[in-house]
């Protein structure tokens, strides 16, 4: 059963009374996932979540939290990371955060977003090599921000955030 706060936000009854127990972190590229996997000593789940969907799950327990890191994986047909492949072949970028927010809202699951943006190159189109170099720096900053958020969330109730 869900209870509303009058502003459209809903949480499961009793969710305010118990500490947060699990966290799902979704990342677009492997270089963002691996520092978190190492930091939280997560184990890879080699099975795909659904047939044909290139997604890798890492999981484990850190302090009082069940941590799940989902890396969107590689395009198995092309051997390239899906986000990078889409970025350079279509000259566009699909914001996965918007899709995640939509589903979280439908399911009435609280969501916190931490977004890291790679450096913008002025005056010329960003090539694949520059993109990957920028991604390394951003991945480091993202790692620090996610670890800080996990440390903050651990042991807290939803109502305490």
Automatic annotation (TrEMBL):
GO BP annotations, alphabetical order: L-methionine salvage from methylthioadenosine; nucleoside metabolic process
Molecular functions (GO terms): methylthioadenosine nucleosidase activity
Source organism superkingdom: Eukaryota
Protein name: Nucleoside phosphorylase domain-containing protein
């Amino acid at each position: 059963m869900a209870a509303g706060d009058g502003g459209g936000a809903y949480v499961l009854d009793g969710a305010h009374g118990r500490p947060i127990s699990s966290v799902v972190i979704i990342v677009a590229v492997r270089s963002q996932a691996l520092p978190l996997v190492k930091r939280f000593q997560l184990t890879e789940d080699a099975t795909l979540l659904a047939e044909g969907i290139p997604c890798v799950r890492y999981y484990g327990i850190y302090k009082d939290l069940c941590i799940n890191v989902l890396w969107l994986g590689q395009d198995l047909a092309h051997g390239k990371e899906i986000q990078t492949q889409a970025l350079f072949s279509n000259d566009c970028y699909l914001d996965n955060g918007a899709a995640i927010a939509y589903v979280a809202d439908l399911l009435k699951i609280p969501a916190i977003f931490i977004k890291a943006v790679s450096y913008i190159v002025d005056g010329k189109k960003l090539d694949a090599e520059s993109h990957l170099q920028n991604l390394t720096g951003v991945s480091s900053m993202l790692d620090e921000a996610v670890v800080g958020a996990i440390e903050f969330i651990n042991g807290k109730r939803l109502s305490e955030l």
